[in-house]
Amino acid sequence: MSAAVASPLASNAALDVARVRADFPILTREVYNKPLVYLDSAASAQKPRVVIDAESRVYEEEYANVHRGVHYLSQVATDKFEATRKRIQTFLNAGDENEIVFVRGGTEGINLVAQSWGRANLKEGDEILISELEHHANIVPWHLLAAERGLVVKGIPIHDDGQIDMEAYKGLLNERTKMVALTQMSNALGIITPAAEMIALAHDAGARVMLDGCQAVSHSTVDVQALDCDFYVFSGHKIYGPTGIGALYGKAELLEAMPPWQGGGEMIARVSLEKSTYKGVPHRFEAGTPAIAQTIALKSALDYVTDLGLDRIAEHEAMLLNYATERLNAMGGITIYGTNSAKASIVSFTMDGVHPHDIGTIVDRDGVAVRVGHHCAQPVMQRYDIAATVRASFAVYNTLEEVDALVASLQGVKEMFA
User: Fold this and answer.
1) pTM value?
2) Mind telling me the catalytic residues?
């Protein structure tokens, strides 16, 4: 752990954001001779020094391919690789470390479930429910499977404030519903869905639930056993970890009944020219050489947020979100999308008379990095009859002064187009 967090603050103390920022080397740089104001963590979070060092250390001191190797480096790499699996188990409160499958990210995890569990369990006429809030990663895999198997994909609508329409959801559940694919937190709006209630209702209807936790996992404590979800995915790069690594949680009985999705080395028990037999879970789903250094460094990211305290992180981000919402509303000419109170860390908005892409380009010259576009969530944009929004997303390292910098830059845009 870096010196800045060597002695974590008491659990009830506020975050020392200056100390936190010192852990992130990139935050010291300038963009166009302006201090970098990074408000795009919902797309990908920046990395603390402890994660950067952990990944570098693997390549400099510990690198070898994992599993099966009898030499020293392979054993060291394997032990650290598997330690991350155990760390994810405790981080998500999964019942067993073998319920954790390493994947490239949330997208691959969802595809794995769709192509393995879906192909084994869904038949023509079965229904899959997805919400209007979903990222394309939790829509397209189900469309691909539906086209192949003759399935029916139905949309769960949202209210004007961005929250799930629970009465509509209840009305959509029926004996043909076999899967509910749901985000825990919207990447486009920041809305936190009533996941636990929706999971219970789905189970009452006999359906399974695939929960996309890519956004939620870095903002609040996740307990997959308390949620009782059947599958849960997250991506390392959203939680201050490396790219190219993520995890799929699946209930043991479901994973054990699922066939392999990809074939190759590591996932086999025995291969002849005539047939192949496969390992048990989770290795059955981990064909080929994995992202070794990235997986090992992911443990450092999970340790980092745990040391800081997810509750304190959430409290800090809520302060930023509330302040940003107040300041943007006070500007006038700004429309914020996703206004339900169950919300975290994201403010998505448009400005009267100015295209979001123009806004993003102009504020960038002030050093302010925001995301513009449909955010891989086109159904959300269609729901509000807009093409795109500006999205500012906040993380543990952001400050009130950075919100002020965003607002000042937006005021300049507003005056430019007046």
Assistant:
1) 0.96
2) 376
